[in-house]
Amino acid sequence: MDPDSGAGKTEYDHRFSSNPMPIFQSTLLEDETLTNQDYSGADLTDHSFRDCEFVGCDFSGSNLSKSQFSRCVFRGCNLSNVKLYNAKLADVDFVESKLAGIDFSTCKSLLFAINLIRCRAVYCIFASVVLAGSDLSGSELKDCVFEQTDLSKANLSNANLQGSTFDRANLEEADLREASYVEINPLTNRLENARFSYSEAMGLLKYLGVRVE
Questions:
Q1: pLDDT value at position 210?
Q2: Which of 46, 99, 125, 147 is deepest in the core (most CB within 10 A)?
Q3: Which residues lie closer than 8 Å to 51 by C-beta, 6 or more apart?
Q4: Which of 189, 197, 98 is nearest to 139 (CA)?
């Protein structure tokens, strides 16, 4: 079959030439499930994805700036070092995916809503990001920055927070039960009605100069 005949093509074209980056026929994709695709290093600026699911895809080092993701799911994907400047993430779920070195503070704040479920997120920046009500349960959130982050009513249960910093963050009514390596200063963060396991709650007392023996 002549590869240029057009037969068998769909809305998007996953052919690879000497350039390993995927070539899309359209900058708008809707209601698609994309599996095991290699988008590493791709320039996907100004693309729009609606109701799409990415399964086992590699986005490492790709440029997603000014792109829009609405009601999308990333499942088992690698999103290390992706660029999200002025990107729109509206109702986006990351499930069992790797996120490393991502600065979410550069995303558009309007309609921003994400969940990180059982993900491995390291060296990510969530400064001034609204994660109110987000599901971050079971995730490794190591060496991340939560500065002035709204985590009110967020689910951080069973999360690993090793090395992560919280500064002027809102954790009111957040669920941190069974979370590990919790280092949150109650004097500089809002913790009203937040839920902790006993051992982690006792660890908060060190910031108050209290010793429990």
A1: 59
A2: 99
A3: 30, 31, 70, 71, 72
A4: 98
Residue 24 within any structural domain of the chain: no
- Report how many domains make up the chain: 1
The tokens of 189 are what? 């963060």
Cross-strand bridge partners of residue 90: 70, 113
Residue pointed to by tokens 């809305």: 11
Q: Is residue 211 packed enough to be buried (19+ CB in 10 Å), middle (13-18) or exposed (0-12)? A: exposed
| pTM score | 0.85
In the chain, the amino acid numbered 105 is: S
Tokens of 112: 């921003």
CATH number, domain of 96, equals 2.160.20.80
Burial grade of 8 (CB within 10 A; 0-12, 13-18, 19 or more): exposed
Quote the domain boundaries for residue 152. Answer: 31-208
**pLDDT tens sequence for the chain (213 residues):** 444 444 443 333 443 333 444 456 788 899 999 999 999 999 999 999 999 999 999 999 999 999 999 999 999 999 999 999 999 999 999 999 999 999 999 999 999 999 999 999 999 999 999 999 999 999 999 999 999 999 999 999 999 999 999 999 999 999 999 999 999 999 999 999 999 998 887 778 777 765 656
Contact 107, 127 (CB under 8 A): no
**Residue in the block written with tokens 């069974």:** 178
Residue 16 within a domain:
no
